[in-house]
Amino acid sequence: MITNQNDTARTVTTELPDRAAVSLTINGEVRQLEIRPWTVLLDLLREDLDLTGTKKGCDHGQCGACTVLVNGKRVNSCLTLAIMKDGSSITTIEGLAADGSLHSLQAAFIEHDAFQCGYCTPGQIMSALALIEEGRARTRDEIREYMSGNICRCGAYPNIVEAIQQVLAEGRGVHREAAE
Ligand code: FES
Ligand code: FES
């Protein structure tokens, strides 16, 4: 670029507010929050709200450990700016069991021994919940395909698929099982 001697350098700066107000309904509870605009949903849940059931694995959208539901749709919370979900309804693994009863998916994961270390399990269950609501998967291969964004380094995949298939077959996606 050619400039003449009369040109003066201009520096444009944009001031980001340090805090911004957001309203989120988290597991059925309306929360009015003041957050840093660059806070991702995963960190908001874990660090600010102490909802540590949602896990941080890769922090890059590759493993699915951080899966939560936003307005019923599964998202990787590590890639989601919380401020962009202002007004949304968030469901985490802590929001599934109620009144001493496990969600049917939680019960099925226990019944089918669908975890070893358990680190991926909250993300697997939240993703499976959305999968059932999406209504696209019926066969084992379809379940594997639509759950492929959730990595299990313990290799519990066959048992995870069995647990999901059982809930699908019994039409129990939205019901809860009594805790033992
Ligand atoms: S921690 Fe979000 S996808 Fe791995
Ligand atoms: S149970 Fe260990 S990562 Fe899935």
Quick synopsis:
With 180 residues, the protein is of the alpha+beta class. The chain is built from five helices and seven strands.
Describe this structure in words.
The chain has 180 residues and is α+β, with helices and mostly antiparallel strands. It has two domains: 21-54 and 69-95, Roll (Ubiquitin-like (UB roll)); 104-170, [2Fe-2S]-binding domain (DNA polymerase, domain 1). 28% of the residues lie in helices and 17% in strands. It contains five helices and seven strands. It has a five-stranded mixed sheet with strand order 2-1-5-3-4, covered by helices on one side. It is elongated. Residues 174-180 have low confidence and may be disordered.
Give the CATH superfamily of the largest domain.
Answer: [2Fe-2S]-binding domain
- What are the low-pLDDT stretches, counting only 5+ consecutive residues below 50? 174-180
CATH architecture of the largest domain: Orthogonal Bundle
* Number of structural units classed as domains: 2
From the spread of the alpha carbons, the general shape counts as elongated
CATH fold assignment of the largest domain: DNA polymerase, domain 1
Largest sheet: 5 strands, mixed
